[in-house]
Amino acid sequence: MQPPNLLLTTLSLLSLPLSTTAETVLGIYIFSRHGDRTSKSTPPTNLTNLGYSQVFTSGSYFRSRYVSSNASSPILGLSPDLVNWKQVAASAPLDTVLMPSAQGWLQGLYPPVGGDTGTEGELGAQRLRNGTEVRAPLGGYQLVPIQTVTTGTASEDSAWLQGAGNCANAITSSNAYFASPEYGELLEGTKGFYESLAPVVNRTFGEGDLSYKNAYAIYDLINVALIHNSTTALTTLTPPTVSQLSSLAATHELNLAYNASDPIRAIAGSTLAAQIIQALNQTLTSATHAPKIHIQFGAYGAFQSFFGLANLTSLPAAGGDEVQFTGIPDYASTMVFELVTNASVSSSSSDFVSLKDVSVRFLFHNGTASADNTPSPYPLFGQSSLTLPWPEFVAGMNKFAVGDQKGWCSACGNSTGVCASAASTSANSTGAGGEKGAGGGGGGMSTAVAGVVGAMVTLAVILGVEALIMLVAGLRLVGRKGRAGAGAGGDANGTGAGGAGKGE
Predict the structure, then answer these.
(1) CA–CA dist 383, 381 (Å, integer)
(2) In angstroms, rounded to a whole number, what is the distance separating the alpha carbons of residues 56 and 111?
(3) Which of 73, 84, 188, 203 is deepest in the core (most CB within 10 A)?
(4) Rounded Cα gap, residues 420 and 462, in angstroms
């Protein structure tokens, strides 16, 4: 039997408010690819019903992970049912693939909450002063604002999504690949392979266009057809042939998006890195006034350039997927950055923990995320740890992040347009890559992050928010000379998307 004093002490402790020291998620940043679409060879492209289902499923999964009242890793202070617009920041280019993908994903994240069944007190119903109860349409459909990028309209119609964002040196760097020995060897070595595909794609690609030069465009056309068509010509494509098409397209696109000896080629990943730091820092330092979920939809080129910069392409094969970070991310793929802490936090407190107690975990899933296909954590920057302290994460990202207009113009070699006045307007800005250190204690902003935030604000003011996201998403279109022009009816022997629609 316990002594009386000890028993009283134990009871007193049990009556105190509880706080948890288990891992707590403070916020997330997600970058996602769109869902299944029609072929790029016959623009305009469109999101298919399958693609809509993929992104909706992905959004639903992330709801079960971070948002719902019984979420497996709930975000601290996040509204579980009714969306709080201040807590979610979404963005996508205004086109027929990426924007609908964002809409579908958000429908899964915050689904309808009722409101048309007549039940008293439904979440989707509001009572007016005069006593009238107004129910939300479509079963309580929730509207979530999406920041649009008007300059990205029809960006997915290009067969070459060069993620340079009008960065002159990046465009030059990517074009240099076509003069490299590696490219020349693949062009010559695969000549017979591509010419053998003529019976399948000759309605879209002429004889002179059947080569490694159009590796991605040819793969894309066939990949879409294999999903949506049942044309007899497709039966001639064996699994090894399709695998080789995929592998060659991945090699082609990765070499356009990233080069270890010429980092400017990966400018899309550099600007994305700066935006990730800025967004997560805002979540950490602005408490309840900043978004807790950042979701952005963009091109596969931004994935590839970031993978290269973050040293993910050097990771060994995982889960039997030998092209985990060197291939082209599948439709609806997502990479996630989680802000987590093991410090004691109260669910009712709006005060965030000290930055020195915050870590970042990177996760990626190739394809649609679901309960059976969940994102997996991977180490960034060639390290072994799956979580990095916030200062180390910032320092690692700052090695290649570009979030300052002066630095961007200098790195890109641009001197016209917005870059004409870059020197004077950004003279007092601190570049994202200028200081590698990261601050620690207190709830304030670290020196390194302050530089990134200040730089991003400067860039946003001068270029406009739309232009900034355009740079980050890597949605600048670069024309490809010598590419076969695909007409509105340019299916490859009927191997276009058919009933799913033409173009992307």
Answers:
(1) 6
(2) 10
(3) 203
(4) 11
